[in-house]
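Standup, Tuesday
Yesterday: got the pipeline producing structure tokens again.
Today: sanity-check two examples.
Blockers: none.

Example 1:
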Amino acid sequence: MSEEKKTNADVADLSYEAARDELVQVVAQLEQGNVTLEASMALWERGEALATQCEKWLSGARARLNAAVEGKKA
């Protein structure tokens, strides 16, 4: 397992809201620009993992809604 995967492995356990809130914090830190290049890269990688987790939650919710709508049509 790569170091990035190990560092961000906990992201898979986060709720949508927790991942979204942390992503907002990561973006704010990156926008401030007062961290080292290495820290910026770690934040970027964390942000990518958080964004992916949010997308998984949203895709799952979208699929459930579509299934519910299709179920009512039948």
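Example 2:
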Amino acid sequence: MPTPRFLTLDDVAEILNVSWSQAYALVRRKELIAIQIGGRGQWRVENEELERFIARKYAEARAGSVPPEPAADEPAGQDDAASTPGGRGRG
């Protein structure tokens, strides 16, 4: 059976190993292009679009646009309160 042209958000979530809500957030933020199909407006992502998204993410990682890991001598969790939702330091 040939690979389907369009994927559901469930399919996308499984492929990326994320939750459905995380896949939907990518679509909402227009990081991942999707279309709505049918009367209930079900989201569909073209297989090739998902592959382009993945390639873009790898290119960003290679270009160094991913935040660096903390230095080995920096205590782990130092910025946890400022970087987590509901933590101090976010306004």
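Quick observation on example 2: Residues 6-62 form a domain with the Multidrug-efflux Transporter Regulator; Chain: A; Domain 2 fold (CATH 1.10.1660). Strands lie at 6-8, 35-37, 42-46.
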